[in-house]
Amino acid sequence: MTDWKKIAEAFGAYMTERFDCEVIHKENAPEMDAIALGFDLARFFGATGVAKGDAFKSHFTTTVGSRIYMPKSHRDNSLLFLEVLTHECQHVLQFRESGLKFAWLYLAEAEARVKYEADAYAAGLAIEQWLTGRINEVSLGWIVESLVSSYHLRAADADLAAKMLKSHYVSIKNGVVMSQSAREAISWLDANYPDLKGKA
């Protein structure tokens, strides 16, 4: 029987060292409590397209710079952990490439937020394909729905997200992985657990 927990631990050690980042327990981070409160206040005053505070803390991994705030639900599911950590490492790279410009664009420009998230979700999709041998097309629709309901996007932004994700999907199906974090993750998986490819 495959010990996915052991694999996830080794994978996490490799990825955090490779991308010089750290995974923090989100439920114990006071800064995440403050953001969750801010989301609830925004919703109280009529904001749409933002997550509820408790959902933000328990169901969303959040990366700030090189700090990856991951909830227990993501840490405890070994297969999901592989996908989510790869996704978040792509955000670490995005920040390193642009610094404060990334932070500003992510917060202020919906189109930029779509691009950053599409690239990061594509990293996770590439891991999904490695693990299972396929990408569930339902995942694409779920991702777009999540972006609209929790990332403050408009209908036009959702259309752009769907097109970008579809482009990544076609590339991944044809063996082309654009996200650097996914290439690193797959290289490690191929080197250490080649027999598990497509077996999850």
Keywords:
200 residues; mainly alpha; globular
Our count of helices gives: 10
Question: Would you tell me the structural class of the helices and strands?
Answer: mainly alpha
How would you classify the quaternary structure?
Answer: single chain
Please, what is the average pLDDT? 94
Strand order of the largest sheet: 1-3-2
Fraction in helix: over 70%
Global morphology: globular
Q: What is the tally of beta strands?
A: 3
Q: End-to-end distance, in Å?
A: 11 Å
Q: Rg to the nearest angstrom?
A: 16 Å
The major pleated sheet works out as: 3 strands, mixed
Which H/E pattern describes the elements?
HEHHEEHHHHHHH
Contiguous low-pLDDT stretches (5 residues minimum) are: none
* Beta-strand share of residues: 5-15%
Number of domains: 1
Written overview of the protein:
- With 200 residues, this protein is mainly alpha-helical.
- The protein has one domain (4-196).
- Helix content is 70%, strand content 6%.
- The chain is built from ten helices and three strands; from the N terminus they run αβααββααααααα.
- It has helices at 4-18, 30-44, 53-59, 72-75, 78-98, 100-108, 110-132, 137-150, 155-173, 180-192, and strands at residues 22-25, 62-64, 67-70.
- Strands 1-3-2 form a three-stranded mixed beta sheet.
- The longest helix has 23 residues, at 110-132.
- The model has no long low-confidence stretch (mean pLDDT 94).
